[in-house]
Amino acid sequence: MGLGGGHVPPEPPMDPPLLLKTSQSTTSVSHTAEDFAKFFRSKVNKIRQTTASAPPPNIADRSCSVPSAFDDVTVEEITKIVSSAPAKHCSLDPIPTWLLKRLLPLLSTTLTQICNASFHEVVFPANLKEAIVYPRLKKSTLNPDDMNSFRPISNLSFLYQRSLSVSSQ
Asked: Would residue 102 count as lying in a domain?
């Protein structure tokens, strides 16, 4: 019984989540996450099959210095990098970027330790290297019914992006 004594109808069955639903055409266009995953996996597999028998690339040796280790980053450097970063965040982030920035005086030492530990061990934690991949139309004029009209866009965690910028400095 619902409020007022009326009958509460059962909830409708759930459809798979839609990543794209557009009203640009007269027909309803929708692709599920599974549709895109299959499509992009198939695309990668086709490329692998076509290039499997190709000879390995001829890469000329060139001398360059490879750092044996990265210099430690300081709390001040981390604070500057995080403070100047855009406030964008990813759903993989444990907290929104605006909150991280606000709590930076409390978290900067921990962030510095994470960066320095990954530099010393030459390993970045695998769970922080994950990405969420979104399909995007390559051009707004392309047909959204055609899966070839899309390209995958990776949304990386804020911490991973900042550690990349620390390592490149």
From this structure: yes
